[in-house]
Write a structure and sequence with these properties.
Layout (H helix, E strand, L loop, with lengths): L22 E4 L34 E5 L5 E7 L5 E6 L11 H10 L1 E6 L18 H11 L5 E6 L3 H10 L5 E7 L16 H11 L1 H17 L1 H8 L5 H22 L5 H10 L14 E6 L7 H10 L3 E6 L11 H6 L4
Parallel strand pairs: 4-5, 4-6, 6-7, 7-8, 8-9
Antiparallel strand pairs: 1-2, 2-3, 3-5
Helix pairs in contact: 4-5, 5-6, 6-7
C-alpha cells in the first residue's frame, strides 16, 4: 500500500499518488516540486471576498481526478502513518481550517484526518443531479488514490446523511467506525422527523421553491461577501445558550469564514446540498448494518435532539450519546471526544 510518510505543515503539502493516479496539489507561495504533482487550476469564482472577511488559517488544498473526470478536493492533516479518519463537513462548510487544538488532538491519537469537499464546494467540481447515495463512490475513489485501505468516518450536521450512505454501501473491511455529530434524520418519508427549528424550516422552504431560493440566495451571498459582519451577527440569532458561548469564544469567525468559502461560487452548491439532505436519501436507515456512534448536543437549536433519537431508533446498531452542555457547534471543542467514539 503506497503511503506518504510526512506530517502536514500548514500551507504546504506534498502528495504521493499511487502508480497511475492523478493528484493535483495547490501550494500557497511554493514552487512546483516535481513531475508527479501538478498545481490545481484556479476555479472560477462568483463575487469577491472582501478584505475585511475574517482570515481563514492556511490549509493544504489538494485534488484528485475522479474516473468521470471531475476534480475532488480535499485537505490532509496529521501524521500520515497513523490511523485514517475521513471528516465529512456540514452544509455550510468545506475542509476544516487547522488550529493548534485540532492538530494536537490528531497527533496525540496518531490520526491522519482527510477532509474532502463535496461536489461544488472548495476545489471540488460540481456534479449536477447528484444524490446522497452517490457520495460513497467518490470517497472510495479518493481513498484508493491515496492508498488507504481502511478508514473511519467523522461527520457533522448535514454531513451525517453522507456518512450513513457510506455505512450502508461500503464493505465492512473498508470502514473503521462511523461517528455522526449533530446529525439530521430524514424529514420526509416513513418515520420522518419534524423540521421544527428555523434552520430546518428554511431548508424545507428551499426544497419547495428551488428557483426562487437560487435567485434570492445568490443576491444574499453577494451582500454577505461584501459585508461579512452581517453574517457574523446572523449566525447567533437562532443559537442556544451553549452555542452562543461557543460563538463568543471564537467559533463565530470560523463559521463566517467557512460560509464564505462554501459560497465562493454563489449559493448554488450550498442550496443543492441542503435540498439533498432534506429529500429522500436513496436508502433506508434500517438497512444500515454497520455500527454508528451518534453524538448530539442536548441544547442544539439547529438540529433538534429528536432527530438524534430517531436515528438511534431506526439504525440497527446506532448508539446515542447526549452532551448536556453542548449545542450544535461542538466539533472543535469536542473533537477529542468525537475521535474517541471510534472503535479502539
Amino acid at each position: 500500500m503506497a503511503r506518504d510518510t510526512r506530517s502536514v505543515p500548514q500551507g504546504s503539502f506534498t502528495a504521493r499518488p499511487r502508480p497511475g493516479g492523478r493528484i493535483f496539489t495547490h501550494r500557497p507561495r511554493h514552487r512546483r516540486q516535481g513531475p508527479a504533482v501538478r498545481p490545481a487550476r484556479p476555479l472560477p469564482t462568483r463575487g469577491t471576498r472582501p478584505a475585511a472577511a475574517p482570515p481563514r488559517p492556511t490549509a493544504a488544498t489538494t485534488a484528485i481526478r475522479l474516473p468521470d473526470g471531475r476534480r475532488l478536493g480535499y485537505a490532509d492533516y496529521g501524521p500520515v502513518g497513523g490511523r485514517v479518519v475521513v471528516y465529512l463537513h456540514g452544509a455550510v462548510g468545506t475542509s476544516l481550517a487547522p488550529d493548534p487544538r485540532m492538530l494536537g488532538a490528531l497527533r496525540a491519537r496518531g490520526i491522519r484526518l482527510i477532509a474532502p469537499s463535496r461536489p461544488g464546494f472548495g476545489t471540488s467540481d460540481p456534479l449536477p443531479g447528484r444524490r446522497v447515495a452517490d457520495w460513497p463512490a467518490d470517497l472510495l475513489a479518493l481513498t484508493e488514490a491515496l492508498g488507504i485501505e481502511r478508514f473511519g468516518l467523522l461527520a457533522v450536521s448535514a454531513g451525517g446523511p453522507y456518512a450513513l450512505a457510506c455505512a450502508h454501501q461500503l464493505p465492512e473491511r473498508r470502514l473503521d467506525g462511523t461517528v455522526v455529530a449533530g446529525g439530521i434524520s430524514p424529514v420526509v418519508g416513513p418515520g420522518a422527523a419534524a423540521a421544527t427549528t428555523p434552520a430546518l424550516r428554511l431548508g424545507r422552504a428551499i426544497v419547495r421553491r428551488p428557483d426562487a431560493a437560487r435567485r434570492w440566495g445568490d443576491r444574499l451571498v453577494g451582500v454577505l461577501h461584501r459585508h461579512p459582519g452581517l453574517l457574523g451577527a446572523a449566525v447567533g440569532v437562532p443559537a442556544s445558550g451553549a452555542d452562543r458561548r461557543r460563538l463568543d469564544a471564537g467559533e463565530r469567525g470560523e463559521l463566517v469564514s467557512a460560509a464564505l468559502a462554501a459560497t465562493r461560487r454563489g449559493a448554488g452548491p450550498f442550496l443543492a446540498d441542503l435540498r439533498l439532505v432534506l429529500q429522500p436519501w436513496g436508502f433506508a436507515l434500517e438497512s444500515v448494518r454497520a455500527p454508528v456512534a451518534l453524538v448530539h448536543g442536548a441544547q442544539d437549536a439547529t438540529v433538534p435532539v429528536a432527530h438524534a433519537r430517531e436515528l438511534e431508533r431506526r439504525l440497527p446498531r446506532g448508539r446515542l450519546r447526549l452532551l448536556a452542555d453542548e449545542g450544535h457547534y461542538l466539533l472543535r471543542a469536542r473533537l477529542p471526544d468525537l475521535l474517541d467514539e471510534l472503535p479502539a
